[in-house]
From TrEMBL:
InterPro entries assigned to the protein according to its UniProt record, in alphabetical order: WD-EF-hand_domain, WD40/YVTN_repeat-like_dom_sf, WD40_repeat_dom_sf
Organism the protein comes from: Motacilla alba
UniProt name for this protein: WDR64 protein
Gene3D superfamilies: YVTN repeat-like/Quinoprotein amine dehydrogenase (2.130.10.10)
Assigned keywords, A-Z: Repeat
Record has Chaperone as a keyword: no
Superkingdom of this protein's organism: Eukaryota
UniProt keyword Repeat present: yes
PANTHER family for the chain: WD REPEAT-CONTAINING PROTEIN 64, WD40 REPEAT DOMAIN 95
Amino acid sequence: ALESIDFKNGLEQFQNLVEKMIIQKTKESSGSYTKDDDEIDYEKFYTTTRTLFGSAVKDQDIQAFFRKIMSNPDERPEWLEIFGCFSRKSVGMSSPSKESMVFLVSEKQQITHSVVKRKDVIKGIVKEPLLHLTVTASQKGVLTVFSKKRKSFFSYSFYFHQDTAWITACDFLPNLKYVVAVTESTIILWDYKSKESEGNGFVIKPMKNCLLCVCTVTMADNLAKDTFLMGDDKGHVYLLTITSDDFIMKQSKAAKESQFKVLDSEFFDIPKRKLHDDWVGKIKYFPALKRFGSCSTDSINSFVLDDIKRLEDHLPVKEFSVPKGVNAFTYCGKAKVIVTGG
């Protein structure tokens, strides 16, 4: 608490220092400035900043901040920049294990493995903390699982050939140990543990509308099934439960797509409900709340937060409106708040 008070006081003094510099520079530009003992040059700015924040700031960030103010006092830089939050060109300048009194950042490990080729982009990235897995899906069909073993990363990748349909999102099914991804017209279930060189899994199709997002509903009551939610471009939210028996009982006799077996969507009970009047941009299940959230650029039904049972019983849902809609949201359990971004 004392450190927080000291930092807040230091930040206020720093902002006052910046205001004085801006006033000084403005007067210099207009020719009305007269030098006196209160003149702030680089040496004074450096000494004062170092006194206020100590080792939490680096020399190059102090220099860059000062130069930015002097070159254009009308464009006031954010105070965060004094800590180098917006200048990451310098790599390896300090040990990642050192703690800053402002930002505590855990040590990171960069994955240099290239999973996509030129003109392809990552459309989804999710982390499975219990299994230490990270899943990525590219627009053109490259699904990759990074597995952290023995303090290094092993990756399992394959390319899903899908004509013109693009992958739009992905997630991980923790009970069945499958990767789920959605495209404009299909649902992909990939068995990443398969030893087949081209991958192995299932494709559920056809889906009438374009699927845009997917998320797993975390439930530990049955280890033989997984439930996930999907959103489409017409404002619908879908609920689908997959069991291990589905992989055996509902295989279609249609041709295989690589090693993927086709499952007819008509064989599945997929409740859906129109919750928005525009695209469903994001969908997420919060185990702590036992609720799912979905958002849209729809200005009337912008954000919905309710039980997944509402997708089947069609009772009124808890929702609120935001002008021009909601693009993103998240939940903080410690603060017990949901934050949305429009």
